[in-house]
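> call design_seq(struct)
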């Protein structure tokens, strides 16, 4: 029977034949499992619900330093808190596993306590669509309810303290790091500032922002130079005119003292020469009046030379020298001296303006090269300044976040449900054990029934005969038990008892 494919009818037939065995195994399994659960040591579970509170100050006002996900931080803290160094003090403080502490190593006891501690995140509600962790459960399973409650409270306190410590340390470390970076940035900024100040001191007046000023000053100095040159020319002309007048006055005075006619040739020559000098001070040599005056002077000089050859000159030593001290002559001499002083001042002013013009011209010419160097320095200075300002801003934000963490106004863990004192064991669940024993006995009975059926080699029906002989069955003669006196029921073309093996048959 085990060699052919079984149908549902075969299985139902086996169940009818072996139902007593299956029922007995199922009936025995439930009390046996319940009895075994009585020998298992009771375990009590204490649970704490920890809520992850959001910062009381909006993150738009004070940005938190620690932006890692709560799930990641919880996983990290779980590894730290459930470590050997954290759990060993708890074992010694509450006297856990007192009967085994001298027989097994501390590592085994820590591993046993680790197996009894479970941290389960709270799943956010689907309606809130929140991605952050709303909280987590801390479950501690021990053989004593009071001990389970105490250990659960201690482990929960470790989580809260560790969270606060990590966030405060992270904020402080970040603030200190930013402060150190600020010192480096400040040193760099001071260095760039000193370089920029030295450059400005070296090229003062030639900086790019002073180029327009230099051009304006250069234009103004050019106008001043033109005005000074014009004033100098006017002073020279005035001096020439005054000098010609002085020469006329002196000639007139000399003629009056010597008794000669003022219309003598020498006096005429002096007057003409003074007129030529006055005209040359105002006009060029090509001017018609200047040419005419020069021709008259040349003609008069020629006549004087001819008269000198005919009449020898008197002895100058014998002629007394006249004194020229008239007010007109003194006034003219004062005017000439004043014009000389003005000419000297204007000449110096002209030279000074020319020097200044040269200085500003050199500044304007060197402005492109200076501007290139200045841009490089200002670029480095601006970069250093931006870096310093950015670090200062971040340091201030980190300092505010640190103060917020110290005041516990940031994100923190809060115990919503303290550790409970369990009133009944969480393990073993004896009703569940009884149900599992019933299911196990039923499965064992079914398995034994199948094994027994598979080991039975009796031919129980037409299919077994056809499978064994590989020939079709035409008719079957049932076995007749004379002692029972019961009529066999029909089976195929013949009759066969319901629970007896096929002992005889016929084939075609």
């Amino acid at each position: 029977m085990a060699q052919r494919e079984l149908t549902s009818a075969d299985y139902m037939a086996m169940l009818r034949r072996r139902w007593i065995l299956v029922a007995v195994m199922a009936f025995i399994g439930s009390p046996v499992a319940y009895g075994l659960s009585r020998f298992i040591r009771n375990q009590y579970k204490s649970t704490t619900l920890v809520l992850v509170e959001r910062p009381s100050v909006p993150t738009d006002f004070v940005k938190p330093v620690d932006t890692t996900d709560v799930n990641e931080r919880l996983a990290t803290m779980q590894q730290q808190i459930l470590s050997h160094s954290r759990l060993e003090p708890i074992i010694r403080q509450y006297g856990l596993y007192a009967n085994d502490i001298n027989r097994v190593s501390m590592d085994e006891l820590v591993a046993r306590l680790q197996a009894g501690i479970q941290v389960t995140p709270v799943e956010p509600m689907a309606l809130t669509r929140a991605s952050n962790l709303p909280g987590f459960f801390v479950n501690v399973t021990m053989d004593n309810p009071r001990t389970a409650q105490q250990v659960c409270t201690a482990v929960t306190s470790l989580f809260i303290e560790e969270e606060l410590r990590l966030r405060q340390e992270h904020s402080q470390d970040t603030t200190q790091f930013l402060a150190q970076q600020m010192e480096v940035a400040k040193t760099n900024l001071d260095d760039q500032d000193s370089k920029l100040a030295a450059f400005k001191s070296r090229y003062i007046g030639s900086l790019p922002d002073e180029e327009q000023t230099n051009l304006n000053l250069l234009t103004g100095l050019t106008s001043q130079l033109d005005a000074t040159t014009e004033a100098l020319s006017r002073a020279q002309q005035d001096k020439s005119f005054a000098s010609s007048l002085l020469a006329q006055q002196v000639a007139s005075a000399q003629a009056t003292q010597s008794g000669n006619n003022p219309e003598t040739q020498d006096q005429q020559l002096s007057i003409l020469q003074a007129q030529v000098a006055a005209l040359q001070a105002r006009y060029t040599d090509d001017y018609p009046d200047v040419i005419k005056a020069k021709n008259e002077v040349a003609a008069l000089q020629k006549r004087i030379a001819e008269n000198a050859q005919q009449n020898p000159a008197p002895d100058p030593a014998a002629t007394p020298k006249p004194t020229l001290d008239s007010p007109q002559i003194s006034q003219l001499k004062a005017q000439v001296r004043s014009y000389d002083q003005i000419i000297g001042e204007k000449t110096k002013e002209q030279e000074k303006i020319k020097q200044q013009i040269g200085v500003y011209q050199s500044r304007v010419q060197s402005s492109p090269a200076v501007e290139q160097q200045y841009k490089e320095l200002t670029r480095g200075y601006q970069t250093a300044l931006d870096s310093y300002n950015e670090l200062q801003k971040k340091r201030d934000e980190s300092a505010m976040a640190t103060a917020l963490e110290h005041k516990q106004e940031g994100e923190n863990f809060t115990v919503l449900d303290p550790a409970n004192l369990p009133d009944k064991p969480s393990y073993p669940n004896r009703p569940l054990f009884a149900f599992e024993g019933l299911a196990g006995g039923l499965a064992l009975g079914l398995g034994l029934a199948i094994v027994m059926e598979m080991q039975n080699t009796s031919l129980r029906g037409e299919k077994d005969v056809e499978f064994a002989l590989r020939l079709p069955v035409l008719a079957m003669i049932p076995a007749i038990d004379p002692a029972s006196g019961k009529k066999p029921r029909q089976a195929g073309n013949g009759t066969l008892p319901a629970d007896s093996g096929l002992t005889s048959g016929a084939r075609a």
